[in-house]
Amino acid sequence: MMNRWVAGSLCDVAYIMSHHPNIYSPPGTLIADRTVGELVAERPGRSRIFQAFGIDFCCQGGRTLREACERKNMALDAVIDQLEAELSAKPGPASNPAELPIDELARYIVETHHGFLRRELPRLRAMSERVASVHGGHTPSLVEMLRTFIGLEEEVTSHMMKEEQILFPAIIALSRGTVSPRPLDGPIACMIHEHEIVGEALAHLNKLSHRFQPPADACNTYRALFAGLHDLEEDLHRHIHLENAVLFPAAKALAGG
What we know:
By secondary structure, the protein is mainly α.
């Protein structure tokens, strides 16, 4: 089945998006001679690499990696290096951020979790708009997912600003003894309430997407979106846990709350 889509702000020209399943290369095929589409279908996380290089893995997913690089006039080896690094990446030594001093924990949350959100939210927003535009006519839940995601993105963006500009600096100053103890119950209660709003949005996305499981005939952008939303959910769960269960109780204790 083929759908035509003229994408307003996302693409300058009309193009055709294929919904045929990916064709996998025979075992032993060099990565350079495998199609971009099959590489992403095999490991959706590779979509980040192709997006970073500006390689279309959805509409032009039938091109081999070699062809895609030639068309972009980019070094094939540079892309392969990134793909191989993604394949072999392993978690670093186990560490527990909950054991960090309170000021270091606040910085860890900003650098690790807020940094993740700033990288991922724009990418997921673009893919959500694209998938809803192409598939929303016959799958209305994708339009509802887009609306839910936009609300989530707006809530999280505002939330991070409040933490980084107001609450976290106050917590760090308290931990260093540079200000007198002062109640933080109000600001912390506000952040916890906003966490609950985010949690409800994540639960709604999870339900609408059937636990982020794309249909069998989903295109690569569809698959990459669902994989990215799954990663977003997991990271936000860890993020919110660190704040609600570790950072905020420690801050309230310092403040005498």
